[in-house]
Write a structure and sequence with these properties.
It is a single chain. The chain is mainly β. Helix content is 9%, strand content 34%. The protein has one helix at 7-19; strands at residues 28-29, 32-37, 40-46, 55-60, 63-70, 89-96, 107-111, 114-120. The strands form two sheets. The chain has a four-stranded mixed β-sheet with strand order 1-6-5-4, with no helix packed on it. It has a four-stranded antiparallel β-sheet with strand order 2-3-8-7, with no helix packed on it. Strand 4 (55-60) and strand 5 form a beta hairpin. The longest helix has 13 residues, at 7-19.
């Protein structure tokens, strides 16, 4: 088997071994992207190798919490691991959502290891025109 040497990868692997996998009380962070697309905010989380049933999404007030667990694959007795770089354990991310987002209508999709949340902007936060009512005409100020 051919392997290239990367000293930083070895340091990362050693640090991961020393710190151990993420646990429910000390989860590892989840990489994410967040952006606005039209009238909604989109947040995408990288969760490769995680099954959809191992993902928990909670919203309490304005705090969005995403937790996921990547479990080891079941191996036969005669399998000997040669290299293990994919992290296992619990991964989590918390985001404070603005009051201008409609947390009641969040949509979640999971495809190809990416969890995508679409959060619509609340109607009360969208720009709107304010009409000016007709007055009784010109008024003079005397003094």
């Amino acid at each position: 088997m051919l392997m290239r040497t990367d000293p930083f990868r070895e340091l990362d692997r050693l640090a991961q071994q020393l710190m151990g996998p993420g646990t429910w009380s000390r989860p590892s962070p989840v990489p994410m992207d967040a952006y606005r697309e039209g009238d909604q905010y989109v947040v995408a989380f990288d969760l490769p190798g995680v099954t959809a049933d191992a993902i928990d999404i909670d919203v309490e007030r304005n705090m969005l919490t995403v937790k996921a667990e990547r479990r080891p694959l079941a191996k036969a007795d005669d399998v000997q691991m040669e290299l293990s770089e994919r992290p296992l354990g619990v991964f989590s991310r918390q985001i404070v959502l603005a009051d201008t987002l409609d947390t009641e209508r969040i949509q979640a999709d999971y495809d190809a290891g990416v969890l995508t949340l679409r959060i619509p902007i609340a109607e009360r936060a969208k720009p709107r025109k304010v009409t000016i009512g007709g007055g009784s005409g010109r008024k003079e100020i005397s003094g």
